[in-house]
Amino acid sequence: MNPTEIIHHRKERSLEVTFSDGSNFIISAELLRVLSPSAENRGHGNKEGKFLPGKRYVGINELEPVGNYAIRIKFDDLHDTGIYTWNYLNEIGKNQKKLMDKYIKDLTKKGLSRDL
Known about the structure:
It contains four helices and six strands. By secondary structure, it is α+β, with helices and mostly antiparallel strands.
């Protein structure tokens, strides 16, 4: 499923994605950053990935198309190696409440915070 529209809401630090099936998601930059599919973020073969505290106010500097299947998101914390496929963006959008709740719970367990 491909997006029909992607809007970067700079002030709100979010990305709005509308897909060809009509679904529409507004996903925070914070969630996109902590779920970056990059090897740097996820580790090589590590399903859990790293815990990334202090990303509540991370923003998006730029979106870069990758072929016709994905985008690279360049964040203002200088992370720019994750390639977000359309399917991955759709999954994040559909499950963002559950994913954010798990992220906050995991941070809390480790004694970490969303703030710096």
